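Lab notebook, bench 4. We co-purified these components, and the gel suggests they stay together. Before we commit to crystallization screens, I want a quick structural picture of the whole thing.
Request: model the full complex, all chains together.
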Amino acid sequence: MNNWLYILFTFLVSYTIRVLPFTLIRKPITNSFIRSFLYYVPYITLAVMTFPAILYATKTPISGLLALFTGVFLAYRGKSYPIVAVACCIVVFLFDLLF
Amino acid sequence: MKDALPIGIAYFAVAFSLGIAMRNAGLTSIQGFFFSALNFASAGEYAAVQVIASQGTYLAAALATLIANARYLLMSTILSQKLSSQTPYYHRFLIAFGITDELFGINIAQKGYLEPFYQYGATTLAILCWAIGTSIGIYAGTALPEQIVNALGVALFGMFLAIIIPPTKKDKIVAFFIILSFFCSFIVQYIPYIQKLSSGSKTIILTLILSTIAAYFFPIKAKEGNQHE
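Here is the predicted assembly.
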């Protein structure tokens, strides 16, 4: 397997998704099932990728779990992407420093 | 301007953590640079890197990218209605390249048509930071102290949480499916046969199954299609 070919194919997919609605498909999607499916996909796929992977991204699962709680709490309170991402890092850093 | 610093740090941290994942998957700094510059998508790249780490097929990598980036199809559809119908095609091709969650969030709140040249300045800078951050993550992943690498490693997940959690305040079905996704993603590690699949394949399969169930049992009403308003 060639890494450059992986990069080429993923690029083609990423760009096609973004450019189609701007060029060829200019009408809103009307099919209820497809609309609903597309609505749920982002939440589900990001959730699947986040947990349990966040537990294994750190030295101990506990600091990963703390980062998860921190992220969920701050995101629920409406904090922006940068604040949430950096706060998760700080929690892990401090936890690993202290324990 | 006061927002620029945290955004810059976060971009770098998230790109860096992606770089760490790429290094583990065997990508070089140069490859990581182009990977990030061309895809410009945290989740999409991470999903593809999971496939690459297990040396999956090109089709699996493409499929993982498609699913993790599917939300851009919706965002792009909504943003395309904010384009003047006279916007020439070369502008359309260029603006589409830079669609991200942040850009979408900024633009959807603004009145009037999208201004192409305003987009290009912000997008070019963001893509450069993003690609360089990834590159540095791959290159310096071993050079930095382990504690810093570990800490930066969760930035990507923090970003994912910042995308998926806020809508749960208004949409309890989304909240339910996020919890169900966490749960399913956790237990598949212990199910015979399925546990042997790569994490990229698991992500694809779980997403397709759970999203189909959600769409079938809880179809969204026509007016609620725009979840970002």
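Chain A is about 75% helix and 0% strand. Worth comparing against the SEC data before the next meeting. The two ends of chain A are 41 Å apart (CA to CA).
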